[in-house]
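Hi, here's the filled form for the chain we discussed.

Project: internal
Contact: R.S.
Residues: 131
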Amino acid sequence: MPVTNARPGVAGATRQCPHCRETILESAVVCPQCKHHLRYGAVSAADVAEPALTPLRIEGSIRHPADGEAWEYTVVVTIRNDRGEEIARKLVGVGALQPNEQRSFTLSVEAVSAGSKALRDPRRGPVGVKV
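And the returned structure, exactly as it came back:
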């Protein structure tokens, strides 16, 4: 996913994680990919402990039957807007299943109100408030 053109401090603005280089939300305190902490001291303890809403969570598994040849699989996540237009597509992983092997998959969408994080600019504090 490319870094968005949204201004810093605006809901949906993104940046790269300095650890894994994945594109993440600018407001993230912990990278959802590598789980590294990103901004110690830039946010309050309440912001870190705030639970995310999970409006979508899908779990499932596939098991290859005991007979037959190996299966190959590709995991792709696609995001579409309300008009059905593709706005992001990400290849998550690939692999193979040998007979009698199983793989489990979980897709979750975590959401946090952008206002609850006060849309902080880490260099200046909350957006619109001069420090």
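Let me know if anything looks off before we file it.
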